[in-house]
Each structure stands twice: as structure tokens, then as C-alpha cells.
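dumping this here so i dont lose it again. seq + smiles for pyridoxal-5'-phosphate
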Amino acid sequence: MIREVTNPTLKPEFGTVPTDHMFNATYENDHWDAGELVPFGQVSLSPFAACFHYGQTVFEGLKAYRQPGGGMAVFRHRDNFGRLNKSLERMGMPALPYEVWERGLTELVKTDAHSIPGKDGILYIRPFVIATEARLGVRISGKYLFVITTCEAGDYYNKPLSVMVETRFSRAGRGGVGYAKCGGNYGASFYPFKLAKEKGYDQVIWTDAATHQFVEESGTMNLAFIAGGELLTPPASETILDGITRKSIIALAADLGLGVREVPIGISDMLQRMASGERIEAFGVGTAAVIAPIEHITWNDHTYSCYVGEDASMYKLKKALLDIKFGRVPDKYGWMTVAG
Ligand SMILES: Cc1ncc(COP(=O)(O)O)c(C=O)c1O
């Protein structure tokens, strides 16, 4: 039975209250075990464990959505699995077998989905892999732990964002780890975020490390614009995370009759178009917010306004995506996997 939402204002802060279970699998002697579902609890590691020192940690983030029949369906989890293994490869960590991923995800969602209240309840799923070998020498760990945890998804930005174009710090460089969802990418972004917040911005727009002339991502989201009847977004690359929401929005934009171009986007050109009065939508896309509208972009002390009116196409894209996720329209792309 689905619990009713009692008092939404009492909802705990996102990511602080887990559901009752988690799934663990371990790797040693060149082999992943089958893993098991266990009650949510502490993970005990030696202070010598490699993850505390050398950054071999990767994670994923995905969601399961309540369906009209009351069950939950997970969105595009095979894409998250593929990306997890790309991240693991880049960090010198062993690939996870698909059977372990699928069984863990299915068992956990089936067991704990009932604890998410509401007919439009969303379960946030956080899988991760960490290096656990207890050895201080700087070398690839021989032991790993894979864990899947879940919690109720939170509400994200509820007002359009004010962002600044980051031209001093970089998120990712050519040949680096930008395309991997490894912990270090996020650790390195906190200081630039902190400085941007202190200046009153909600987020930064990352630019390419070499020239700071081309936009890459927005905070922990991919970045897209709608201008002149086209969806424009920089191509996924070794410095841009291959976002699953981004891929989905690209498919849906074509359905809505928008042109789609995955092209490098010069910040100066785009902002000049805004300054000349052209109606341009800018938004972040990602699992957490789905679409986060951007209202103001500041670059070199000038602030530019983006279109956030009610008839903006980005809201239509968001609705089209949520309709599929919640099973309100047929899933013609085969994106949803019913889990329980
Ligand atoms: C750096 C970064 N870019 C983009 C995204 C969006 O990816 P997705 O749509 O798969 O959530 C995320 C979130 O996972 C992210 O952390």
C-alpha cells in the first residue's frame, strides 16, 4: 500500500534518511561476489583503506518513479550501469558484472519502494564503488566494495537560477577524469562553488579548461540552450559527463519539433545573442532537478537574461520526460524498467 504524504513540510533534508536496506557486493582475488541485500547500516573499514587516501571512488545517481498501478519503475538504469563501468575503468577499478547490478537494484527497489510516500513518490538510488584494501602504498587497490543505497528523492531548485561563468577554475581538462563520475570531480568543485555562493550565485557554468571560451556544464548538471527553434548543447566528451537526462532531452526535443545540435557553444556568441534581445532559454539538466531553468548568467561582470516565461519549451521537455517516468504516457523508448 502507498503511504499518503502526511505533512510535506516535515520532509527530511534530501539524502539524510535512508530506506531500510542496502545491497553490498565485494571484490577480491580478481572476483566480484554475488552480493546480498542487508539492513541499512554502517560500513566498517580500516583507516588504511585505499578509498580514504587515493580517490578510487565512483558513484551513480538514478531514480525510480511510482507508476499508476502503485509499483515503481527505474529510469534508464542500463545507461547508469554503462557509465559506472566507464568510470571504474578510468579509475583503474574492476568492472562490475551486470547480474550483480541488476539483482541488487531490483531487490532493493522491490523491498524498500513501499516506504516512499505519495502517488508521485520518487526513490533516489545511489550506487557506489570504493577501494577497500588496507595498505598505505600508492598503488591500485586489490579489494573493493559495491553498495547500493536508497532514500526518498528531494525537491531541487524551485526557482530559476542565477549563475556565473567560471573562468578561473576548471572542472575537467583534456585527458583527465571529467567524463567519470568519480568522487574527486565533486571534491574539486566545492571551492569554486563556495566562492560563487559567496558572490550570491546559485551555481557556476564550467568552461573549457584550455581557453575558458566554451561552455561545458552547469554545476553538477549538463547545460542546454533553446535558441531559434533549436536545442543546443555541447557534445558529451572527455571533459563533459555523458548525462542520461541530457540524452533523453535530446530525443524528446526532436519529438517536440525542435531542431537539435550537439555543438561547441562559445559563451561570447551565446551571450551576445541574449544581449541583442533574442529569446534564449538556458537550463541545467540532470537526474536530480530534471530541468533547472537559468534566469541570469553573469560573465566578466555583465549579467545577461534568459527567457523563463511560462510558455518556454524547456518546461514542455520537462513535462514530456516526467510523463514517461511516471508512466502517464506510453514508454515508446523502452526507458522504464518495472522493479516492484
Ligand atoms: C557533473 C555532472 N554532469 C551532469 C550530470 C547529469 O547526469 P544525469 O542526467 O545522468 O544525472 C551529473 C549528475 O549525475 C553530474 O554530476
